[in-house]
């Protein structure tokens, strides 16, 4: 007779990469190298137990767990012999709701066009806006669902998702409703942090001033109404703060209007031109900023002081052949660094293992730093690190089971995540299980 029922027992693993075991919400500087990893003994593997709410209640050697839970029944038992267990990855920056690909622009960039020359000629974000405005809500949902399930299969269990291909009330709300539907219908696969990014570009027929007014006076009130009606939920506000797009003063106004509605400020800063976006973001105590290729020394110090998370997007550095952001300097200064895939029609990458590899190669991050940035610190950028981002008692059981001798293989074997990832557990339930291949 068992006196208790638990949801999940995963046993016999080779390694458990906890990331941290002391409850920090984020790691900085030298702490990012001190990854907490438990390794099995020759005759004793490792286990994780989750209760019926999907919360981790025990982590340890199989022998200890067997004794402790001898009178407990498990709804699901997973034999993780020869596997390593990592926390589910957290992708801190994506644009996953859109119709129409931009493969033709990839060709143009290979021939020498720049991101901004395409954007200013009416392509780039504008091209995607045209297609997204025309797409039905169901079509956008179908596209999003497929992308999110592919994101899950590459090990991500929490993802930040932006609107921003509407640039008007109607289509921004359509995108937010599509995201809300995914948040509700796919919650047993992936958690979504929703970002309103109505200020992603200046619509073709507007000036920066009129576009700013439209975001503050029309889009944000419409978002507020829709939230009140229970149709959508929004966690973060974003602006593409860039020379020739929304510049400092208007970005600040939009971010502050979002803050008044209770959103976290999490925006695109200093990507292509050293505008001083990150200094501005630090001055208004933004929670997180992305890109930062052109960040100033002063902003690095200010971000470190505020514990503002710097979200690095190596796929964009790669695809646009940008000078990488000064990540080593930022880590040394104490900025909490996170990683995101930046999945969008310009940077078509859904996989955090690929992102970690690129972060190591292009931004000179270590393996440990890349993993911390893709788990705990990415969760922190979304205000979610008390629940996600590490394997600790009290956190949600979001786990990636890897068929590899050690965890580092998920970064080292570039593009092999489909082969390596055997299972993804979301909130204590098996959300993805690899089927045996030939
Ligand atoms: N830089 C602005 N936004 C996106 C790109 C969006 C797009 O090109 O569609 C980014 O983060 O890279
Ligand atoms: Zn982006």
Structure in words:
- The protein has helices at residues 62-68, 103-110, 115-120, 125-134, 137-153, 169-185, 208-228, 248-260, 277-283, 297-306, 314-319, 327-333, 352-363, 367-373, 376-381, 409-412, 417-420; strands spanning 4-13, 15-19, 36-39, 46-50, 56-61, 72-79, 83-87, 89-91, 156-162, 191-199, 236-241, 264-269, 288-291, 309-312, 337-339, 399-403, 421-426, 429-433.
- With 438 residues, the chain is of the alpha/beta class.
- Helix 7 (208-228) links the parallel strand 10 and strand 11.
- Helix 5 crosses helix 6 (169-185), helix 7 (208-228) runs parallel beside helix 8 and helix 9 (277-283) runs parallel beside helix 10.
- It is globular, with a radius of gyration of 22 Å.
- The relative contact order is 0.16.
- Residues 93, 95, 268, 342 line the site of zinc ion (ZN).
- Residues 85-428 form the Amidohydrolase-related domain.
- Its cofactor is Fe(3+).
Global structural class: alpha/beta
Overall, the morphology is globular
Q: Which band does the percent of strand residues land in?
A: 15-25%
Q: So how many helices? A: 17
* Heteromolecules bound: N-(iminomethyl)-L-glutamic acid, zinc ion
> What summary fits the major beta sheet?
8 strands, parallel
Helix amount, in percent? 25-40%
Uncertain runs = none
Q: What would you report as the Rg, rounded to the nearest angstrom? A: 22 Å
Protein name: Probable imidazolonepropionase
Catalytic activity: 4-imidazolone-5-propanoate + H2O = N-formimidoyl-L-glutamate
Family: Belongs to the metallo-dependent hydrolases superfamily. HutI family.
EC number: 3.5.2.7
